[in-house]
């Protein structure tokens, strides 16, 4: 009895489904990249905004310079608790420069009345940044009641 070789036809069927796992991986990587890069794209003035849950300044820190704007748009500069008379913008810049010569690391805070125009606060920030060279200011707020 002779054995004839068995000839098998290895028919391959074309695969009719798409493997989506690599596409999901690529989409997750893109999602992470956009989540990280989106906050970096925001434009505006660099200001350290106070948070509601922030701790108050400690007593051993040097008193900050507080540039205030009242409801009628007058400028004031106070160091710690001492307040001064109304100033012109160039006088305020000269006083801040004098204080910064004595202590270059003094913190500068802006205390704007809630009814003052937003334009006045921005002008004061630009003035402090351009004329004095302050790159970071704090905005004073009252805690919510």
UniProtKB/TrEMBL annotation:
InterPro entries noted in UniProt: ExbD (IPR003400), Tol-Pal_TolR (IPR014168)
Pfam families for this protein: ExbD
Transmembrane segments: 20-41
Record key words, sorted: Cell cycle, Cell division, Cell inner membrane, Cell membrane, Membrane, Transmembrane, Transmembrane helix
Membrane topology: Single-pass membrane protein
Subcellular location: Cell inner membrane; Cell membrane
Example GO biological process: cell division
Gene Ontology CC: plasma membrane
Gene3D superfamilies associated with the record: 3.30.420.270
Source superkingdom: Bacteria
One function term, GO molecular function aspect: transmembrane transporter activity
Subunit-structure text: The Tol-Pal system is composed of five core proteins: the inner membrane proteins TolA, TolQ and TolR, the periplasmic protein TolB and the outer membrane protein Pal. They form a network linking the inner and outer membranes and the peptidoglycan layer.
Family, per entry: Belongs to the ExbD/TolR family.
Purpose: Part of the Tol-Pal system, which plays a role in outer membrane invagination during cell division and is important for maintaining outer membrane integrity.
Protein name as catalogued: Tol-Pal system protein TolR
Taxon lineage: Bacteria, Pseudomonadati, Pseudomonadota, Gammaproteobacteria, Oceanospirillales
Gene from which this protein is expressed: tolR
